[in-house]
Amino acid sequence: MPKVSISLPDRIENDIERLVDQGEFVNRDQAVEELLTMGVSAYDTGEDEPEVAAEDDFFSQTVEDQQDPALHDDDPDDGYTF
C-alpha cells in the first residue's frame, strides 16, 4: 500500500483523535484510511467502481437518497395540526 504524508489543520487532527478515543476506529491509521475512503467515494467520477458492501453503502448515500423520518405525507385538512 502506498504511503502518503500530509499536513492537517489542528481542528481536523483533533477530530480524528476524538473519533479514535471514542472507539469509532481502532487506531489513527484506520481512521485516516476510512475517512479518506468515504471522502473520495463521495465524488462520483463516473468510472466503473467495484460494488460497495451494504454497510459501506449506508455512508455513501446522497442527500437526495435520504429520507427524513419525521416527514409525513399527511393531508393538511385532516383536522389537528401544530
UniProtKB/TrEMBL annotation:
Q: Which InterPro entries match?
A: DUF7120 (IPR055544), Ribbon_hlx_hlx (IPR010985)
Q: Which residues cross the membrane?
A: none
CDD domains documented for this protein? RHH_NikR_HicB-like
Question: Signal peptide location in the record?
Answer: none
Q: What is this protein called?
A: Putative transcriptional regulators, CopG/Arc/MetJ family
Region Disordered: list its residue ranges.
62-82
Which domain of life does this protein belong to?
Archaea
Q: Which GO terms describe its biological process?
A: regulation of DNA-templated transcription
